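Predict structure. Chain length: 585.
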Amino acid sequence: MTKNGNSPTIKIIPLGGLHEIGKNTCVFEYDDEIVLLDAGLAFPTEGMHGVNIVLPDLTYLRENRHKIKGMIVTHGHEDHIGGIPYHLKQFDIPVIYGPRLAMALLQGKLEEAGVANRTELRSVMPRDIVRIGSYFFAEFIRNTHSISDSFTVAIHTPAGVIIHTGDFKIDHTPVDGEFFDLQKLAEHGEKGVLCLISDSTNSEVPGQTPSERSVYPNLDRIFSQAPGRLMVTTFASSVHRIGMILELAKKHNRVVSVIGRSMLNVIAHARNLGYVKCEDNLLQPWHTVRSLPDEKILILTTGSQGEPLAAMTRIANQEHPHIKIRKGDTVVFSANPIPGNTIAVVTTIDKLMMQGANVIYGRDKGIHVSGHGCQEDQKLMIALTRPKFFLPVHGEHRMLVQHAKTAQNMGIPAENMVIIDNGDVVELSEDSIRIGGKVPAGIQLVDNAGLLHDSILKERQQLAEDGVVTVASAIDWEGKLVAKPEVHLRGVVTTVERSLLQKLVQQTIENLLNDRWQEFARSFDGEELEVDWAGLQVQIEQALQRLLRRELQSRPLLVFLMQIPDAPPPAKATGRRRRVKKTRD
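Prediction complete.
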């Protein structure tokens, strides 16, 4: 058992969500038991060619899979539950506790991935307390966020109570009437909170995050002024926003067609659980809606972040099979770009405008508010919980630093908090908090075929930056070229004539064969010939790479195809045929 003297010590190990936005994954460990909190994904950066999603490195969890007793889910956003199907392909999780909406969304993901039998999903309600393993109790506290059914969690451990805020803002007029349970937070603050682990996303923003309800009058005005078709894009998981849009569609006598699989899925589950309320005839498929007058149509779609395969992006690129922009359309972006997505979003907006749409976007329009608390929300969280120790999470480094400064202004000593990175092992006891080591915490990349190795991504980056050169060459038993090598360039910028490059490639191969053939071809007793073709290929590839770097002033990916003879070598003058021994990988 991990101890600090006689005081129990809890290990807190974030595997994602630090110095970044996304892939939130945290490990709580005591003795031989591990409890996970969330398991999210992130989206690829511009240089991750062909990558669909980014996951945290799960090496530590694979190596300690026998310790895992369960998982806590705070809410249903992809950066908190999107990685769970991939976790379950690598190890079992006995039980996962979380809110009803998140569990409904997760059930579909697990069934689609074929891993539903590797865990048990259990829905919880506000103020429920569940036991996980022998040492951990999780108490679910209702909070307010940009998705319905979101929780802050009080984790009761042998060292004391640790409160993890999850994603939160303090919304005093929530759309669904589910108020933040500030009373329960205050009760824990009165009894004593050992450590507060808190969302840092908006720690640089003064003031308080506006209520989700503040968006309603601005959307109402836009809807009333739109002369033709309305298209609205927002986050598929923004259940509160979707509920308001449906409410406004009914008010303005428009029929809604939902375009985008993820949004259809979220709305179906949210309606089933009562988080979205609307009449059945308000929602209609596109083939029904398209025949209505333009002023009666509202298209609700995914693509607010410029995602390449999302519906709004395909509409902007004129690639959608059913919907084309025409003059008089009003397109509303009821979302702000996530850091890293700005270029994709503005490109989408430009394309929509060029096709004649009136696009309404931007922070000044008041059609989006954040789901994360600003400085005053964060201060209230600290004031209510009154923690002894403080751990800022969920944000880039500058956000963590600013959140720590806010906590110091609230009276928490600097020595009672740490700024950490993914993989840092925080050791927390009744008397101290410190970084006690590090575990592997890189990234795993996933494309349509599954997990990618780093070498594959490097090859893709090399292809994108410098192109590819293919060289095909045939070599006989005497170490001679059978014909001139074939050289093909794709995506390579060069001032070198192709004929000259082919000549240089041929000279390079011939020189190596003339100088070093005897290193790779050995004859035994004058009869048996052994050729190390694999070793020869490696040496030729290295020589050609040096040639290409020198002549092209770049580093294109080299694909060298070497054809070797299948037939035995020619007979010697005695008329006897050589016995052949080939060595090749």
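Summary: Residues 498-520 form the longest helix (23 residues).
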